[in-house]
Amino acid sequence: MATKFTASQSVEIAVPKQPIPIQHYLRQPQRLVKTLADNSRIQQLSEEVFRLKMRPLTFLSLSIQPTVDMRVWADSQGTIYLRSVGCEILGFEYINQRFALNLKGYLSPYHISNETRLQGKADLEVLVDIPQPFSLTPKSILEATGNGLLKSVLLTIKQRLLHHLLADYRTWVISQTQTNEIVDDNTELPILNFE
């Protein structure tokens, strides 16, 4: 029995003023990916594609571990887009062959009364053919359980984003300004002439 589960999550983040606008930081999507999950669970496949090994999820006494390939890119205004381009369920070949995951999202900076804010949204949809005996479970219970599970996945991602994005942005700004100061210091050194 094919069943569709869906969840959406929105986020809004106030961005503290820094010497470098957050739009410059957001043009490096790989930094954003690293705020979403532990480095040990992320593998960069190409410039824009990342493999994310999710934590095991429990659904109706089944423990599954999805691995999602995501394309992450930024436009010239600093908006980051995220799209799933592949998915694999480790350990359950039956479910893996009957499982489709579609994740899409964005994170976009905007200004309101002298303040920069980030606004974003993620939509997650899973289509899966539920195996026996679980397919005997009433559809309303299956959908409520599955939708709740997807919502918890998106909520976890949102919490990580809220906790890690601004800290990483601050770290990045400090590293950029220190690099620039070193370059500035070197260019201002007088040339010593020992004739």
Tell me what you see in this structure.
The protein is α+β, with helices and mostly antiparallel strands and 195 residues long. The protein is 34% helix and 40% strand. Strands 1, 2, 3, 4, 5, 6, 7 and 8 form an eight-stranded antiparallel beta sheet that branches.
What's the mean pLDDT score? 83
How far is the N terminus from the C terminus? 88 Å
Q: H/E order of the elements?
A: EHHEEEEEHEEH
Overall radius of gyration? 22 Å
> Helix count, per DSSP?
4
Structural class label:
alpha+beta
- The 3D shape can be described as elongated
Unreliable sequence segments: 182-195
Proportion of residues in extended strands: 35-45%
Major β-sheet, in short?
Answer: 8 strands, antiparallel
Percentage of residues assigned to helices: 25-40%
Total strands: the figure is: 8
